[in-house]
Amino acid sequence: MDESHEQGSAAAGVRSVTRALQILSRLTDERTVITLRELQDETGLARTTLIRLVATLEDHGLLWAVGGNRYAPGPGLLRWARLASSSWELPLESRRALRALVETAQESASVWVRQGVRRVCVAQEESLHALRTVVRVGHDGPLWAGPTARVLIRDLPDDDLAKIAAETPDGAGRLPLMRQWQAEVREQGYAVSHGEREDALSVIAVPLVDKDGAVTAALTLAGPTGRFGDERLERYLSAIREAAEVISASGFMRLGASTPSPR
């Protein structure tokens, strides 16, 4: 087999994996069952290709046929979910620090990591207030808006910033603003906003860092803007920085290093 043939086979394999992941990504919390027609319309795949990929995913337990050309998440995903949950479980000291932060500030706290051009919540602790911010573990969001994103992009080179900017309505025009965010977080050590992404929602974010001071994750505190006045904000900043020191030292993964690849 010549080199060009091997490269072609490898590219085809990667393409198939990408398409399979594209299919699985169409399932969400709001839509746990999807039809073959919806998959075809949303992925743009040829019907024969789609049927083949769906059958493969079904064979491996990643999809489950529920009748009428409809599919739900398969039982095989339960194993992956269990492994991910175990791996990303906060170490005891970090969990205690997160709970102490919520007890002190009386607002919801969460830990986020960068995953490509998105951010993903890997841990959270809810406020006990009736009116509170609720973020589920596994929830993802953009890296081009909000304090959490600003913290996570602090150390990124321009190549990575450009990939994130490409996801925004502004395209490359977003880059100057993102560079400004980087400078602000480096200078202040935190990011804060009031009503930026959602009306009446305030968020404070600080970096979690490795032993060299590089950003590995973001710790956030969020709640109604009415509870984030100047006096409380200073108290919240003190509390979240204290928690960040503990979590940075203890890590935010029970298994492995606290600096997972963001690719």
Distinctive features:
IclR family transcriptional regulator, alpha+beta, globular, GAF-like_dom_sf, Arc Repressor Mutant, subunit A, transcription, 2 domains, Beta-Lactamase, 263 residues
Describe the structure in your own words.
The longest helix is centred in the first third of the chain and has 22 residues, at 3-24. The two termini are 31 Å apart. The protein has 9 helices and 9 strands. The protein has 2 domains: 3-76, Arc Repressor Mutant, subunit A (Orthogonal Bundle), CATH 1.10.10.10; 88-250, GAF domain (Beta-Lactamase, 2-Layer Sandwich). The strands form 2 sheets. Strands 6-5-4-9-8-7 form a 6-stranded antiparallel beta sheet. A 3-stranded antiparallel beta sheet has the order 1-3-2. Helix 5 packs antiparallel against helix 9. The chain has helices at 3-24, 36-43, 47-59, 76-87, 92-105, 147-152, 158-165, 175-188, 230-250, and strands at residues 34-35, 63-67, 70-73, 108-115, 118-125, 140-142, 191-194, 201-209, 215-224. The chain has 263 residues and is α+β, with helices and mostly antiparallel strands. Keywords: DNA-binding, Transcription, Transcription regulation. It comes from Planosporangium flavigriseum. Residues 76-253 form the IclR-ED domain. Pfam families: HTH_IclR, IclR_C.
